[in-house]
Amino acid sequence: MKEDFSSILRARYRHYVGVKVVSLPGKCVLVSWLLFSALFLRNRIAGCESWRLPEVFFPHISLIRPQLLDPLRIVVQVFWLFFMRTPPQKSRTRGFSRRLRYAVGGAKGRLQGLANKAWLQPSFWQTRDANVARRHRQPLTIALAAVLAVLCITVPLDPLAQFVFATALFGILLVFNRLPGRFPQMLMIVLSLLISCRYIWWRCSSTLNFDDPLGLALGIVLLLAELYAWLVLLLGYFQNIWPLNRPAKSLPKDTADWPSVDIFVPSYNEDLEVVRATIYACQGLDWPKDKLEIYLLDDGRRDDFRDFARDVGVHYITRDDNRHAKAGNINNALKQSRGEYVAIFDCDHIPTRAFLQLSMGWFLGDPKLALVQTPHHFFSPDPFERNLSNFRKVPNEGGLFYGLIQNGNDLWNGTFFCGSCAIIRRGPLEEIGGVAVETVTEDAHTSLRLHRLGYNSAYIRAPLAAGLATETLSAHIGQRIRWARGMAQILRLDNPLRGPGLKLRQRLCYFNAMLHFLSGIPRLVFLLAPLAFLLLHTYIIYAPAIMIFLYVLPHMLYSSVVNAKIQGRYRHSFWGEVYETVLSWYIARPTTVALFAPHKGTFNVTAKGGLIHEKYFDWVMSRPYILLVLLNAFGFLVGLWRLYAGPSNEISAVLLNLFWVVYNLLILGGAVAVAAEAKQLRSDHRVQVRFPVALELPSGHLLHAQLVDFSLSGARVELSPDAAEQVGQQVNVIMDRAGREYSFAMTTVFKGREVVGLRLCDQSPSSMVNYVQCTFARADNWVSWKQNMSVDKPLTSMAAVMSISIQGYRRLLRAGPRPLPQLLTTINALVGMAKSLRPQPILIRVEEA
Amino acid sequence: MSQRDKTLRASNTCRWLLLVLWAVCMPTWAEQLMPAPSEWRQAEELRRYDYSLTELGFPQSVLLRGSESSAGLSFGSRLDELVEEATLDLGFSFSPSLVPHLSHLKVYLNGEFMSAVAVDPEKRLQQKVSIPLNTRYLADFNQVRVQLVGQPPEECYSPDSPSIWAELTGDTRLRTVSRVLPVANNLQQLPAPFFDRRDYRALQLPVVLTGEGSLERLHAAGIVTSWFGALASWRGASFPVETERLPKQHALVFMTNTQRPKALQDFPPVSAPTLQMISHPENPAAKLLLIQGRDDADLIQAARGLVLGSELLSGPVAEIQRAVQSEPRKPYDAPNWLPTDRPVRFGELVDNLNQLQVEGRTPPPVRVGFQLPPDLFTWRSRGIPVELDYRYSPPVEDGSGSQMSLSINEQFIEAFNLTRKGFSGEAKRFRVPLLNDGFLSANQRLRIPAFKVGSRNQLEFKFDFAGINSGECKSLAPAQRYAVVDADSTVDFTGFAHYIEMPNLRAFANAAYPFTRMADLSETAVLLPDSKNKEIIQTYLQLMGFAGASSGYPALAMALYDDWQEAALKDRDVLLIAANGQLAQGGEDLPLLFDRSERMLQKPRKNIVSESDTWAGAAPTLASATTEVEVRASGPFAALLGMRSPYNDDRSVVAVLAAHPSDMALVREALADSGKIAEMYGSVVVFREGGQASFNVGDKYYVGKLRVWDLIWYHFSRYPMLLGIISIIVVLMLAVVLWRLLGGVARRRLQQGDE
User: Fold this and answer.
1) Which residue of A267, A303, B257, B475 is 20 to 30 Å from A450, comparing CA positions?
2) Distances (CA, A) of A128 to A241, B185, B738
């Protein structure tokens, strides 16, 4: 018996300790617990063996390593268990939630049923379009609706009434939000417009304090910034209200009818490595060879480029000067080529082989069509994505533009030329004198001129080419500065709102694009606005806090719900704020300068394909944001002081401004996080994919494998451990492309348990063309990427931005001067400790007795 | 109680103002009017007056704080009386910490030292002393000033030490014995002796109307009583009617050559509208003002001549040749109402600029009073801009705690620090919040009913100079401190529309609105019953006086009717006075119907008391009737009833109704009682003996003009759900239109390739 007892104890002791080394206090605690449980407790308590109770009910406490705060943790956990304990059986709450879900599902089904109703289908209304009465009824309807809308916008309401009004409509907005399809979306847009107009009207009509000059001046500045934001919102709705989703159009069966295309690949200072893949991909384009001419436009006058062009058999054009940079380069090439169409690819944009086939169709149908643009797609993360580590999880900065805005522009015949991945008809291009050279954004300016002459444009939202994103944050920002400056220049030199040829809708599209880049100053105003109250103690929005709350909140809430609905797949809530905040400081000055002196400023080439060898914090780039953070943090502290020491009737105003400051700090934290540059070591970018290949061993055996990533110089495959064993030094990788199989000889450079790294042996032009065709230029490559992205959930986005923001502050502290990193360590330790106190969920499995 | 106190305080202010006025321009004409010695002996009647502390200007006991602080008790003495004895019964308490022999009260009458009262150490908390006042120093407006000279036992003390105080208790009284003086029959003194502005009591002036009161005669009487009402102003006025007998006091007599009281039957007939002042046949001390004419039409001219031309009259008799209004008055131009078409200087709001200056260590507040039209539409106003400029004796140091506090109708608004600069700097512009002020209303605690509609408003600027506390024993002789609010400071009520929800008996009770909209009642029709008995006429005359008190202008242009004539009543607001509850017109759906014995009242679900002193236009208070009750009863019963005119949607009717003619007294008493006036609101006020009740019930309508969009906003702002529904409709309409348009555009865009 005694022997039994001690052996049981020993077994239990071993269960807890295993092979670990245990400290003396640990031993004491554990042994006393085991003795106690064996002597005094029943065998089983609450369905599990009593000696294992601590393990089950206190999973976060280790008996063998007792810690100082453990008693507190135990108390917290006991309380939590006492109040929150969920029985192992199916709980009532779960039943309830299931019922709820069922009910919601039913409602959803009904709503979807409603959506299928005839009157919600476009055809229902369009057939009635033919109705003669329509012509008279429509203007009447619009006039009546406008009058009523003015009523709804301008009627002032007291707080309670405004609350009722906004809440009731918000409920309806949420109902619309659940309805699928375009019509509910349109309803949402109009509703949000109504609320935002109401807000702006209220702001303009009753929130300026004419008695306080300082408050009035600052208030007007803020109001102007808000008017800007409102205008951008308005134009954004206008642009995005009906994305055209233009399908690809098939070409005639007979390839003899297909037109001839010149492909221009301009380059200035990029590495040959970067250009090679592009040229190879162009050579692999599915187009009659006699109708396809490839031109490498080298502005750098580099011999290795000329040699490479000669080797692979493409035209090489260079010139003596670099006037007008890329625009001049293309114009120079225009004179030396003859194809009916010109396709332009930046030297790092690798077209998929179907590029021409999918995008040329529209030209043949519409003789006035001068431009077909496709999205820019990047297979490397841009600095935002890299530094925030959200590559391919959250749509990137360009996602919105290429996913939605261009698509929406297409409805209004206002697609812009974006400098690359586009095809232009030669005739119109020559008619406007080639690519525009007056501004630093020659691309948008060129399409503006084409539109002025009455030519059409089209946008095909299929990623048919992919390229490298900018490398460093400073380069990325430099590029945006160029765009911003260029847009501001166009606004001054060739204002789309004036001048001949454009339709109003096109003017608005262009104007919005330009307006977008003027966001710098308004954004800074928003970042500083709460300080006016907290630091200067002046009411810049002269209204009671509750009224501000009741007007601003619906405005923001409605527009963010609507934007989440229409942009959700292309931009997640709050991320745009982070992107714009990072850029705001830097584009504020150049755009302002360009607005006043449009001829100032030079073209700076976007550097790509660089490396970041060390993790570092970009102090120079983030300096303004750190200043803003400090200002806001100071404002926050002053706000706390006001809360404590200020008059009681100001508390709500202080709280409102504190809330604003916290929001600013959150967004600024995201901006700061971007500034911490992450490492990027590989010289050529590995593209993550997943498609099957076969490995042919020298012995002739074939192994199944998955290609997991590739680059221009090699690839990585994944295969079963057994198979991986057999891979030797030499191996042929067989890839499939359009029904044909290609084999590439590779050497093994790295061998893991399931992964093998391979390097391409034969780098001759013909082989490289095939290799690029089988990897970079696969037609189906990029399409699947977007599908992995989650649809926007504002709250989830908010949480993500919040965690990014916290990360940003951590990085800032870590990189900061001497006492700050220690401070961070302390904070981390404290936070960790506080977290460890939190009760832990337990898992009880009822074991059969 | 408190309402009464407020009124009293206001009236005391006025007394004070009048006193100051007198002090500045000491009138000498009083002596000239002294009657001849022969008449002197005839008047032997003595009158005794006993003024309580409240009547002397202090509703509560008077605190004297700090050494050399003083309080002034003011009273007037009538032209037709000579004060022969005056005694001040002073009840007071001393701070226990004052040294008895060194502390005392000094009493002055009109600046002349009368007596000193030492502290009695035995009963320092309840001391009473009777001080005879030397009547030689009495004048028309008198002030008894009580000054405290206090010294605490410490050697070093500050004269402002809080332990130095004395309190004049509520049993303080001023008693006078006056001999009635005969007054010469001279129209030059008008309105005295019929109305004497030195007399702070309510005016009671009998009116003698013989014969059955024809409308013209009543019209003339109405003009005159409204004038007296305007003169009596805050004192209140009533006009008992006599038909035959001459009252034994000063009275007005309306008579024509054919119809005159018996006692004056032998009086020579007149050949033109004539004013004449005679002594009462039986009582030479009482005077009669005869308003005479050949016929009733002449009486109107005589009355007009009296009210317009009193400044031209002298001698015992005057004939009125012509008295017309050459230019019609404009709406809202009543002299008593604050102009709302321009900023108003404070200088215009006080009778005398000295009222804007105060002195003393703890000076009394500077008070600026004014009355506002009741129908100002202040919805969504930011407050009333006040440009304030003031000067003061600078305190020794900044941040000493010296402050100027601004309050309105005893509600504190804002305080400003007094600095060593000694003036407010550039005119300080700020806004006085209104009840419905959007900026402040979100915070419940800041809902300040700052201005009162229709009744008198008072801006108070209280300068508090901090005491000097040097801590050392040295002689600090701080100079007398002065503070003055600049007369060029302005208050600006411009830009407010006139728009008000009716029926609104609060506006009627406070300002005789809507009749006083035209100060001369030119858009008012008074509708009297066929049988015009004494009670009815008395009520009518009092209401005219009431209107005059509100506007400050005689009712020169009102019209009188005794039947419902649509053509005549169409363009006028109707003031209906009827006994037996006869309405004759006005529909069945009135919330209150009654006759001699039966009464029916509709009551709302909830009787929304429009918050007292709110802006009328501010708080919409729709309340439909949900209960009806009918009773049969015979006790006294009267009512005020407001409703829309049956002939014109923009016009109103205010009906003064009584079950029996004698019940009219209930209404008259209520309208003479500021406490009862304050409780009147809504569309129905019913009076029974000893009580009244107001009801906010029945159909509402609006009068006044608003800009179209204000009108739309104002009315829609009350229905957020309706707005929500309209929004949904708009959204649907626009979305459908957009859907069609854009669908078409999209189709065309995609077809472009196929052409």
Assistant:
1) A267
2) 22, 96, 14
pLDDT digits (tens, 9 = 90+) for B529-580: 887 888 888 999 999 999 999 888 998 888 988 888 888 888 899 998 887 6
Tokens 């060194």 locate to: B102
Q: Which DSSP string corresponds to A600-616?
A: -----PPPBS--B-S-E
Q: Which range (A553-557, B36-40, B364-368, B453-457) has the least confidence?
A: B36-40
Whether the CB-CB separation of A819 and A36 falls below 8 Å is answered with no
* Positive or negative torsion for Cα B48, B50, B55, B58: positive
Residues of A identified as active-site: 299, 443
Distance CA B702, CA B712 (A): 13
Q: Which of residues 419-458 of B touch A (CB under 8 A)?
A: 429-431, 438-443, 445-446
The reply to whether omega before B503 is within 30° of 0 (cis) is yes
Candidates B214, B280, B226; CA nearest to B253 is B280
Give the list of residues 6+ apart from residue A126 with CB closer than 8 angstroms, or none.
B740, B743, B744, B747
SS3 A737: strand
Helix (H) or strand (E) holding A316: strand A315-318
Q: What mean pLDDT is predicted for residues A632-653?
A: 87
Q: Is residue A356 within 8 Å of A287, Cβ to Cβ? A: yes
DSSP state letter for A467:
B
Name the one residue in this structure whose structure tokens are 């402040």. Answer: B440
Report the DSSP beta bridge partners of residue A318: A298
Q: Is B732 on the interface with A (CB under 8 A)?
A: yes
- B752 and A365 within 8 Å at the Cβ level: the answer is yes
Of residues B497 and B589, more confidence is placed in B497
Instruction: Give the predicted TM-score (pTM) of the model.
Output: 0.79
Spell out which residues of chain A touch residue B429, defining contact as CB-CB under 8 Å: 211
Angstroms from B447 CA to nearest CA on chain A: 12
Q: Note whether A186 contacts B750, CB cutoff 8 Å.
A: no
Q: Which of A232, A221, A803, A210 is nearest to A527 (CA)?
A: A221
> ipTM greater than 0.90, yes or no?
no
CB half-sphere exposure, A301, CA atoms < 13 A: 4
Per-residue model confidence (pLDDT) at position A85: 53
Q: Return d(Cα B740, Cα A141) in angstroms, integer.
A: 12
pLDDT higher than 80, residue A452: yes
**Judging by beta carbons within 10 Å of its beta carbon (0-12, 13-18, 19+), is residue A104 exposed, middle or buried?**
exposed
Specify the DSSP class assigned to residue A19: T
Place of tokens 């400003």: B416
How far is it, in rounded angstroms, from Cα B551 to Cα B517? 8
Which site among A190, A362, A509, A539 would you substitute to test the B interface, given the most B Cβ atoms closer than 10 Å to its Cβ?
A190
Distance of alpha carbon A578 from alpha carbon A62, whole angstroms: 42
**CA B69 to CA B85: how far, in whole Å?**
27
Number of Cβ atoms within 10 Å of the Cβ of B717: 18
Using CB atoms within 10 A of its CB, is residue A620 exposed (0-12), middle (13-18) or buried (19+)? exposed
Is-contact A490 A444, C-beta < 8 A? Answer: yes
What is the CA A84 to chain-centroid distance, rounded? 39
* Crossing angle (nearest 10°) for helices A182-206 and A133-154: 40
On chain B, the residues whose CB falls within 8 A of the CB of A183 are: 735, 739
Scored b (16 or more CB within 10 A) or e, A141-167 reads bbeebeebbebbbbbbbbbebbbbbbe
Of B700, B241, B336, B402, the residue nearest B547 (C-alpha): B336
DSSP assignment of A87-121: -SSPPHHHHHHHHHHHHHHHHHHHHHHHHTSGGGS
What's the rounded mean pLDDT across residues A715-731?
A: 85
